[in-house]
Specification:
This is 3-oxoacyl-ACP synthase. By secondary structure, the chain is an alpha+beta fold. The protein folds into two domains: about 70 residues; about 60 residues, no CATH class. It contains three helices and six strands. Strands 3-4-2-1-6-5 form a six-stranded mixed β-sheet. About 25% of the residues are buried. The model has no long low-confidence stretch (mean pLDDT about 90).
Length: about 150
């Protein structure tokens, strides 16, 4: 098991858990606002406020569902073994940065080094997936040389 992969995986899990918590809290706040508006409003103002709270609740429910999908995807990724071909769970070093193929979680820092956590379905993830050390690809006019796949 790669310690680096485990650390990157745990950083992605923490990122997704934070998104789940934020969405859950926002749903609770929207529901509370809807309840409070019911108690204190009348007429058109009541309907408008209630509808806005419902829309906010729906938006947050969609964010929660998306975060839960990310957690499911993370749970499917193995941090064991060294792979020669880039796939979900791989750490890929290029001459233009290092990438962790998992979920799109932005820049993660481990032991003072930055890694871009990207989904295998993202544009760069699609270019990296299936590649091995020594291969090259271009994206948005930028050339990438794959130095290693772990």
């Amino acid at each position: 098991m790669s310690v680096l992969k485990e650390q990157l995986h745990q950083a992605c899990v923490a990122y997704v858990q934070q998104r789940i918590q934020a969405a859950t809290e926002a749903i609770e706040q929207a529901q509370q606002a809807q309840t409070d508006d019911t108690k204190s409003s009348a007429g058109d103002k009541y309907e408008t406020g209630r509808e806005m709270a419902q829309q906010e609740s729906n938006r947050n429910a969609a964010q929660l569902a998306e975060a839960n999908k990310l957690m499911v995807a993370l749970n499917r990724i193995s941090t064991n073994g060294n792979l020669l071909t880039a796939e979900a769970g791989s750490v890929v070093a290029t001459d233009n940065g290092s990438f962790y193929l998992a979920v799109s979680a932005g820049i993660l820092s481990v032991d003072g080094k930055s890694y871009f956590a990207v989904s295998a379905a993202s544009p760069i993830g699609l270019h990296i997936k299936g590649k091995t050390a020594g291969e090259k690809f271009s994206l948005n006019g930028k050339d990438y040389n794959i130095l290693s796949v772990e």
